[in-house]
Amino acid sequence: MHAFRKAGLVALSLAVIETIGCSKSRGREQDDDDDDDDPAPVVNPSPGTAQAATLWTFDSSSVGQPPAGFSFGRTGSGRPGRWVVRASADAPSGPNVLAQEDSDRTDYRFPLAVADGPMFGDVSVAVRCKPVSGRVDRACGIVWRYQDENNYYLTRANALEDNVCWYYVQNGRRVEVKRVHLPVAAGVWHSLRADMRGDHVEVFFNGKKLIDLHDSRFTAPGKVGVWTKADSHTLFDDFTATALAP
Predict the structure, then answer these.
(1) 177: part of which helix (H) or strand (E)?
(2) Core-most of 24, 25, 57, 226, by most CB within 10 Å?
Protein backbone atom coordinates (compact mmCIF):
# COMPACT_ATOMS: atom_id res chain seq x y z
CA MET A 1 0.00 0.00 0.00
CA HIS A 2 1.20 3.40 -0.90
CA ALA A 3 2.30 5.70 1.91
CA PHE A 4 -0.24 8.15 3.17
CA ARG A 5 0.26 11.69 4.23
CA LYS A 6 -1.25 12.16 7.64
CA ALA A 7 -2.78 15.16 9.35
CA GLY A 8 -4.82 15.62 12.49
CA LEU A 9 -8.62 15.55 12.53
CA VAL A 10 -10.59 18.24 14.27
CA ALA A 11 -13.84 16.70 15.39
CA LEU A 12 -16.86 17.73 17.40
CA SER A 13 -19.05 14.68 17.91
CA LEU A 14 -22.84 14.68 17.99
CA ALA A 15 -22.79 17.74 15.82
CA VAL A 16 -21.45 19.25 12.67
CA ILE A 17 -17.71 19.71 12.39
CA GLU A 18 -15.36 21.62 10.18
CA THR A 19 -11.83 20.55 9.49
CA ILE A 20 -9.19 23.03 8.48
CA GLY A 21 -10.59 23.15 5.24
CA CYS A 22 -13.01 19.89 5.32
CA SER A 23 -17.12 2.80 -17.37
CA LYS A 24 -17.41 0.61 -19.27
CA SER A 25 -20.17 -2.11 -19.06
CA ARG A 26 -20.84 -4.43 -16.15
CA GLY A 27 -18.10 -7.00 -15.83
CA ARG A 28 -15.62 -4.74 -17.64
CA GLU A 29 -15.07 -2.69 -14.49
CA GLN A 30 -12.84 -5.43 -13.15
CA ASP A 31 -10.50 -4.50 -15.97
CA ASP A 32 -7.27 -2.75 -15.86
CA ASP A 33 -9.75 -0.27 -16.50
CA ASP A 34 -7.97 27.39 10.20
CA ASP A 35 -8.83 30.87 11.71
CA ASP A 36 -12.40 32.04 12.00
CA ASP A 37 -14.84 29.20 11.55
CA ASP A 38 -17.90 30.06 9.51
CA PRO A 39 -21.21 28.63 10.70
CA ALA A 40 -21.52 25.13 9.33
CA PRO A 41 -24.48 24.15 7.17
CA VAL A 42 -27.19 22.19 8.93
CA VAL A 43 -26.96 18.46 8.40
CA ASN A 44 -30.28 16.81 7.62
CA PRO A 45 -29.84 13.13 8.47
CA SER A 46 -31.75 10.42 6.66
CA PRO A 47 -34.71 8.83 8.41
CA GLY A 48 -33.59 6.40 11.09
CA THR A 49 -30.19 7.97 11.61
CA ALA A 50 -28.40 8.08 14.92
CA GLN A 51 -27.42 11.41 16.42
CA ALA A 52 -23.78 11.62 15.34
CA ALA A 53 -22.93 13.50 12.17
CA THR A 54 -19.59 14.69 10.87
CA LEU A 55 -19.27 17.41 8.23
CA TRP A 56 -16.13 18.60 6.44
CA THR A 57 -16.55 21.93 4.65
CA PHE A 58 -12.84 22.84 4.12
CA ASP A 59 -13.70 26.50 4.78
CA SER A 60 -11.08 27.05 7.49
CA SER A 61 -8.27 25.46 5.49
CA SER A 62 -5.24 27.17 4.03
CA VAL A 63 -5.85 27.50 0.31
CA GLY A 64 -3.32 25.59 -1.76
CA GLN A 65 -2.65 23.02 0.98
CA PRO A 66 -4.05 19.52 1.61
CA PRO A 67 -6.80 19.50 4.24
CA ALA A 68 -5.94 18.38 7.73
CA GLY A 69 -7.55 15.19 8.97
CA PHE A 70 -7.24 13.36 5.66
CA SER A 71 -4.91 10.74 4.23
CA PHE A 72 -4.35 10.30 0.52
CA GLY A 73 -4.01 7.10 -1.46
CA ARG A 74 -4.53 5.59 -4.87
CA THR A 75 -6.03 2.37 -6.12
CA GLY A 76 -4.42 1.07 -9.31
CA SER A 77 -1.39 2.57 -11.01
CA GLY A 78 -0.12 5.95 -12.16
CA ARG A 79 0.68 9.02 -10.10
CA PRO A 80 -0.86 9.74 -6.70
CA GLY A 81 -3.58 12.36 -6.68
CA ARG A 82 -2.92 16.01 -5.90
CA TRP A 83 -5.49 17.00 -3.29
CA VAL A 84 -5.55 20.67 -2.30
CA VAL A 85 -8.02 23.17 -0.89
CA ARG A 86 -9.09 25.90 -3.32
CA ALA A 87 -11.28 28.97 -3.08
CA SER A 88 -14.33 28.67 -5.30
CA ALA A 89 -16.84 31.44 -5.99
CA ASP A 90 -19.67 28.95 -6.48
CA ALA A 91 -18.84 26.60 -3.59
CA PRO A 92 -22.09 25.28 -2.10
CA SER A 93 -21.12 26.45 1.40
CA GLY A 94 -18.22 28.78 0.46
CA PRO A 95 -15.57 29.86 0.38
CA ASN A 96 -13.45 26.72 -0.04
CA VAL A 97 -13.62 23.32 -1.69
CA LEU A 98 -11.39 20.25 -1.92
CA ALA A 99 -9.93 19.72 -5.40
CA GLN A 100 -8.19 16.79 -7.07
CA GLU A 101 -5.96 18.42 -9.69
CA ASP A 102 -3.48 15.83 -10.96
CA SER A 103 -4.11 15.11 -14.65
CA ASP A 104 -2.44 11.71 -15.07
CA ARG A 105 -4.49 9.91 -17.76
CA THR A 106 -3.75 6.39 -16.54
CA ASP A 107 -7.14 4.71 -16.96
CA TYR A 108 -6.99 2.31 -13.99
CA ARG A 109 -6.04 5.05 -11.51
CA PHE A 110 -8.31 6.04 -8.64
CA PRO A 111 -7.03 8.80 -6.31
CA LEU A 112 -8.58 8.85 -2.83
CA ALA A 113 -8.85 11.40 -0.01
CA VAL A 114 -9.93 9.54 3.13
CA ALA A 115 -10.89 11.05 6.49
CA ASP A 116 -8.65 9.77 9.29
CA GLY A 117 -11.69 9.34 11.53
CA PRO A 118 -14.21 8.59 12.78
CA MET A 119 -14.98 5.11 11.45
CA PHE A 120 -18.49 3.99 10.55
CA GLY A 121 -20.34 0.72 10.05
CA ASP A 122 -23.92 1.62 9.19
CA VAL A 123 -23.58 5.06 7.64
CA SER A 124 -25.00 7.71 5.35
CA VAL A 125 -22.21 9.32 3.30
CA ALA A 126 -22.92 12.38 1.16
CA VAL A 127 -21.02 15.03 -0.77
CA ARG A 128 -21.54 17.92 -3.14
CA CYS A 129 -19.29 17.46 -6.14
CA LYS A 130 -18.49 19.23 -9.40
CA PRO A 131 -16.80 17.39 -12.27
CA VAL A 132 -14.75 20.14 -13.91
CA SER A 133 -12.69 18.53 -16.66
CA GLY A 134 -10.91 15.40 -17.85
CA ARG A 135 -10.33 13.70 -21.18
CA VAL A 136 -10.29 10.13 -19.88
CA ASP A 137 -12.87 10.66 -17.13
CA ARG A 138 -14.89 13.30 -15.29
CA ALA A 139 -15.85 11.44 -12.18
CA CYS A 140 -16.71 12.15 -8.57
CA GLY A 141 -17.23 9.44 -5.99
CA ILE A 142 -17.61 8.59 -2.32
CA VAL A 143 -16.25 5.57 -0.45
CA TRP A 144 -17.26 3.92 2.82
CA ARG A 145 -16.37 0.89 4.93
CA TYR A 146 -12.90 1.71 3.66
CA GLN A 147 -10.30 -0.75 4.98
CA ASP A 148 -7.40 0.39 2.80
CA GLU A 149 -6.88 1.75 -0.70
CA ASN A 150 -7.61 -1.67 -2.19
CA ASN A 151 -10.74 -2.65 -0.22
CA TYR A 152 -13.88 -0.51 0.09
CA TYR A 153 -17.36 0.27 -1.23
CA LEU A 154 -17.76 2.99 -3.84
CA THR A 155 -20.40 4.88 -5.76
CA ARG A 156 -19.58 7.48 -8.38
CA ALA A 157 -21.13 9.77 -10.99
CA ASN A 158 -19.46 10.26 -14.38
CA ALA A 159 -20.05 13.34 -16.54
CA LEU A 160 -18.38 11.82 -19.62
CA GLU A 161 -20.48 8.67 -19.56
CA ASP A 162 -23.69 10.14 -18.09
CA ASN A 163 -24.19 7.45 -15.49
CA VAL A 164 -24.03 6.62 -11.80
CA CYS A 165 -22.50 3.30 -10.74
CA TRP A 166 -22.06 1.27 -7.57
CA TYR A 167 -18.96 -0.88 -7.07
CA TYR A 168 -16.99 -2.84 -4.60
CA VAL A 169 -13.20 -2.67 -4.68
CA GLN A 170 -11.58 -5.83 -3.36
CA ASN A 171 -7.87 -6.64 -3.46
CA GLY A 172 -7.40 -3.68 -5.79
CA ARG A 173 -10.00 -4.83 -8.34
CA ARG A 174 -12.94 -2.51 -8.98
CA VAL A 175 -16.05 -4.51 -9.85
CA GLU A 176 -19.23 -2.88 -11.09
CA VAL A 177 -22.46 -4.19 -9.59
CA LYS A 178 -25.06 -1.69 -10.79
CA ARG A 179 -25.19 1.11 -13.39
CA VAL A 180 -27.91 3.70 -14.03
CA HIS A 181 -27.83 5.99 -17.08
CA LEU A 182 -28.92 9.61 -16.66
CA PRO A 183 -27.52 13.06 -17.48
CA VAL A 184 -24.54 14.11 -15.34
CA ALA A 185 -23.50 17.62 -16.36
CA ALA A 186 -19.91 18.80 -16.09
CA GLY A 187 -19.21 22.22 -14.61
CA VAL A 188 -22.14 22.19 -12.19
CA TRP A 189 -22.58 21.00 -8.62
CA HIS A 190 -24.34 17.71 -7.89
CA SER A 191 -25.23 15.81 -4.72
CA LEU A 192 -24.23 12.17 -4.29
CA ARG A 193 -25.23 10.05 -1.29
CA ALA A 194 -25.02 6.42 -0.19
CA ASP A 195 -26.85 4.92 2.80
CA MET A 196 -25.78 1.49 4.04
CA ARG A 197 -27.34 -0.49 6.89
CA GLY A 198 -26.05 -4.01 7.29
CA ASP A 199 -25.85 -5.38 3.75
CA HIS A 200 -28.49 -3.00 2.33
CA VAL A 201 -27.22 -0.05 0.29
CA GLU A 202 -29.14 2.79 -1.39
CA VAL A 203 -27.59 5.39 -3.68
CA PHE A 204 -29.07 8.84 -4.37
CA PHE A 205 -28.03 11.34 -7.03
CA ASN A 206 -29.38 14.89 -6.85
CA GLY A 207 -31.96 13.68 -4.35
CA LYS A 208 -33.30 10.80 -6.45
CA LYS A 209 -32.80 7.19 -5.42
CA LEU A 210 -31.17 5.29 -8.27
CA ILE A 211 -29.73 2.13 -6.74
CA ASP A 212 -31.08 -0.29 -4.12
CA LEU A 213 -29.25 -3.56 -3.51
CA HIS A 214 -27.56 -5.87 -1.01
CA ASP A 215 -23.92 -6.84 -0.53
CA SER A 216 -22.18 -8.39 2.48
CA ARG A 217 -18.61 -8.28 1.23
CA PHE A 218 -17.42 -5.71 3.81
CA THR A 219 -19.08 -5.80 7.22
CA ALA A 220 -16.50 -4.21 9.52
CA PRO A 221 -16.61 -0.47 10.24
CA GLY A 222 -14.33 1.57 8.04
CA LYS A 223 -13.31 5.06 7.06
CA VAL A 224 -15.11 7.35 4.61
CA GLY A 225 -13.68 9.46 1.82
CA VAL A 226 -13.94 10.90 -1.67
CA TRP A 227 -12.66 9.42 -4.93
CA THR A 228 -11.88 10.27 -8.54
CA LYS A 229 -10.63 8.46 -11.61
CA ALA A 230 -7.77 9.00 -14.08
CA ASP A 231 -7.41 12.66 -15.11
CA SER A 232 -10.64 13.86 -13.49
CA HIS A 233 -10.36 17.42 -12.17
CA THR A 234 -13.10 17.36 -9.56
CA LEU A 235 -14.24 19.66 -6.74
CA PHE A 236 -15.84 18.49 -3.48
CA ASP A 237 -17.69 20.34 -0.72
CA ASP A 238 -19.91 19.57 2.27
CA PHE A 239 -18.64 16.02 2.73
CA THR A 240 -20.83 14.42 5.39
CA ALA A 241 -20.90 11.11 7.24
CA THR A 242 -23.76 10.23 9.59
CA ALA A 243 -23.99 7.11 11.73
CA LEU A 244 -27.21 5.21 11.00
CA ALA A 245 -29.30 3.26 13.46
CA PRO A 246 -29.60 -0.43 12.52
Answers:
(1) strand 173-181
(2) 57
